[in-house]
Amino acid sequence: ALSMARALQFSKLIILYLENTGLSGRPLMLLVSALKINRKLKKLYLGDNDLNDLQDSMFLGELLQFNHTLELLDVKHNRISDDGMEDICKGLQQQQTAGLRSIVLWHNHITAKSMQHLAT
After folding, report:
1. Measuring CA to CA, which residue among 60, 57, 47, 2 is closest to residue 20?
2. pLDDT, tens only, 69-107
3. What whole-number distance in Å separates Cα of residue 26 and Cα of residue 52?
């Protein structure tokens, strides 16, 4: 995971599929650290990684706060709930320029409560 993170810092990839790769926890933290400074990636697919509210949602919020070139984030089929959506939305709110246009959230553990976070 560390080698991949280093390579992604200045990668010219525009689409990255990392579905069902066990990225929860430290591997996700390393990925986010690299992608916070990456300015080429447009689409990131992280479905089926067992992402959770404890730390993974916070990492995703950090990614969105600092990476303004990412346009699509796909986190379908994970364990993100309303608390995690709050962390993700905080990152979106702190973006200084236009960034994320689409987020795929289906088959997580979010309720109507999360829509309030998304609307702000």
Report:
1. 47
2. 999 999 999 999 999 999 999 999 988 777 899 999 999
3. 12
